[in-house]
Amino acid sequence: RKIIFEKQWFYLDNAIGHIYGTTFEVTSGGNLQPKREVEETTPETKEAGTDNRNIVDDGKSQKLTHDDIKALKDKGIKGQEIVQQLIENSTTFRDKTEFAQDKYIKKKKKKYEAVITIVKPSTRILSTMYYAREPGKINHLRYDTLAQMLTLGNIRAGNKMIVMETCAGLVLGAVMERMGGYGSIIQMYPGGGPVRAATSCFGFPKLFFDNLHEFPLSKVDSLLSGTFSTETLPSEPEDNVLVEEESNGSTDEKQTSLQETEEEPTTEAAMEINQTEEQETMDVNAEDVEFKENKEKGYKENVREKQRKQWERRKKLIETAALLREKNADGLIVASKFHPTPLLLSLLEFVAPSRPFVVYCQYKEPLLECYTKLRERGGVINLKLSETWLRNYQVLPDRSHPKLTMSGGGGYLLSGITVVLDKGNSDSSNLEALKMEEPSSKRCKVQDLHC
Length: 451
Fold this sequence. Notes:
The protein is of the alpha/beta class.
C-alpha cells in the first residue's frame, strides 16, 4: 500500500520484520532500505564567522538553481550529496556562525534527505500528532492536559473505569495503554456507535479489547430510573436455518413444477422440428434457476450474519448494563464536546465512593457551572478547577532558551473525589443548626471558665 507522509511517498513492504526505531532511506520507486550508521565529517563547518551581521538574505548566495537541484535528483544522487553541494556552492556559508551553520545543514537535510524512522505508537506521540495537525478532532486536548487527566483519574491496572469522550478515541486509547489490558473499561458513547479512530492507531492486541465494554448515553436515564429493559433477543442462527431450508424446499418444488409444465408433449413432427429450440430454452431456464438459487443463498447468509451480530450486540449490552448497575466504578473520565453538567451528574451515580473523577472542557464557563451544581448537590469533595500552562524549551549547547512560539491554551480540568451523599443531613434546617451549634470542645472550655 502506498503511504504519503510529509510530501514523501513510499511502500512499507520492506519495513516488515524490522524493530521499532529503525531508520530507513527512501530509494527510487518508493522502496525502503535500512540506513547505515555513518559518521558525518564536514570540514567546512570548522571555518565559521563571528556573527551574522554582514549577511544579507538577497537570494543570490546560492549558485545552484532549482533546475540544477532537480537534475541532481533525476540522476539518482542521494540527499546527503545534494546537501554537500549546496554547502559548497553557498557564498555566505563560511561567514555564518557555527550555530547558524548547524541550523542551515539541519534545514537542508530535512528538505532533501528522504529518511524516515518508524516508531512504536504511544499516547504521547499520537496526542502530539493530533494536537499539531487536527486539534478539532480531539476538542483541542493538549498532551500535557491529557497527562494530567490520567494522573488525577488514578488510572492504573485492575481498575473499573467509565470513559465518556468525543476525542476520536484518543482518551480511551490512553486509558487502555495505562491499564495494560488489566481491569475493565466502560465507554459511554453518543449516537449510533463509538468512534475509535485514534484507538486503532495504538495497535493493541485482542486481549485489550476483551475487557472493553460500550453503552449508549441514550439509555443511561432509563438504567438509573429502573425502566431499562432489553428487547427480546432474536433466536439463535440455527433456528432460522430450519425455516430457510423449508422455504428452499418449497421453491425447489415450484421450480420443478414449472419445468414440467414447460415440457408438455407435442406431436412427433413438432418435437423433431423444435427439439433444438427446447434444448436451448431448457439450458437458459437452468441457468436462471442456478442464478436465483445463488442469489437467495447469498441473501440468506447476509440475513443470518446480521442477526448474529445483532444478537451479540444485545448480549454485550446486557453485560454492560449489569456492570453499571453494580455502581462500583473506580473512576470517571469525561472529555466531550457536550455540556459537562448533565453528563457528570448522571454518570457519577455509577461511581463508588472515595473515587476520583476528571472532566475536561475546552472552555472555562461550562466547568464553572458544573462546579456550582456539584457544590449544591453535595457528594463530592476536593473540587478543583485547573488549567495547565505549557512552554517548550530548546535545549542545545550554549543556546538553551524558551521557544518563541507557545500554545495559547490546552483546556480546563475539573477534578474531585466522590463521597457518600448523606441525604438526612442535606436539609437546610439541619445545616443551619449544625452551623449555629458550638463544637463540644469549645463548650466544655466555656463551662470550665464559669466554674
